[in-house]
Specification:
Layout: H1 15-40, H2 46-76, H3 81-130
Protein name: PIRT protein
InterPro entries: PIRT
GO molecular function, one term: phosphatidylinositol bisphosphate binding
Length: 132
Amino acid sequence: VEAPPKSPDGSEKSPQSKELLTSNTASTLCISSRSESVWTSASRSKWDIYHKPVIVMSVGAAVFLLGMVITSLSFIESKNVKFYKMCGPAFLSLGLMLLVCGLVWVPIIRKKQKQRQKSQFLQSLKSFFFNR
C-alpha cells in the first residue's frame, strides 16, 4: 500500500486533487492548441474552405435528379409502378434535403470567415499595444 504524495507544505494530496490538476492542464493544452490551429490556418484557398458544401450540394442535386427520373418513370412505365412510386419521392426528398443543407452551409462558412478575420485583426491590435 502506497502512501499518498505529500505537498511541499507537508499536507497529503488526495487523488482527486491530482485529477483536477491534470484535467486543468489538459484543458489548457487543448484550448491553446485549438487557438493555435485557428491562427495558423489563415491562408486557405476557396476550394479548401467550400469543398464540403459543394460536395453536399452536388450529391444532393444528383440524388434529386435521380428522384425526378424515377418519379417520371412511374407515369411512363406500366410495370413496377409501385416500386417507382415508393422510391421516386424518397430520392426527391433526400436530394432536396442535401441540396438545401449545402446551400445553407455556405453563408454559415462566410460568416465564420468574417468573424475569424475580425478576431485576427483584434488580436494583432492587442499584440501591437501590449508588446510595446
